[in-house]
From TrEMBL:
It comes from the Bacteria. Pfam families: HxlR. Coiled coil: none annotated. Keywords: DNA-binding, Transcription, Transcription regulation. This is Winged helix-turn-helix transcriptional regulator. The keyword Transport does not apply. The keyword Iron-sulfur does not apply. PANTHER family: HTH-TYPE TRANSCRIPTIONAL REGULATOR YODB (PTHR33204:SF37), TRANSCRIPTIONAL REGULATOR, MARR FAMILY (PTHR33204). Residues 15-114 form the HTH hxlR-type domain.
């Protein structure tokens, strides 16, 4: 995969590639689900446990969306009972550094509300 270089002097106010990436990552819980998969293949229940507050229905839909986007792969293990794992594709794994950079930024700059 070739990497396009961004020249800071040539950055335009609008980039359709950036907008498309933000449409994908900006879907509710999408980036959080991707971050939960950074550690490797994971079962649905493990992702659900790692993302508190997300319904199973929404998690199922988000995994389908991310699979359709080519970021997540659903792997069915032929065991009894059948085991289904989710893992990042090469394309999804390439977001790992970006997600962790965003996580570091959040740790430095985001203040969470105090627990009541």
């Amino acid at each position: 995969m070739s990497h396009r270089q961004l020249d800071p002097d040539d950055i335009r106010p609008y980039c359709p590639y950036y907008a498309a990436a933000m449409d994908t990552l900006g879907r509710r819980w999408a980036a959080t689900v991707l971050r939960a998969l950074l550690g490797g293949a994971t079962r649905f229940s493990d992702i659900a446990a790692a993302v508190p507050g997300m319904t199973d229905k929404l998690l199922s839909q988000r995994l389908k969306d991310l699979e359709a986007d080519g970021l997540v792969e659903r792997v069915v293990q032929a065991t009894t009972p059948v085991r289904v794992d989710y893992r990042l594709t090469e394309k999804g794994a390439a977001l790992g550094a970006v997600l962790l950079d965003l996580n570091r930024w959040a740790l430095d700059w985001i203040t969470l509300p105090a627990n009541p």
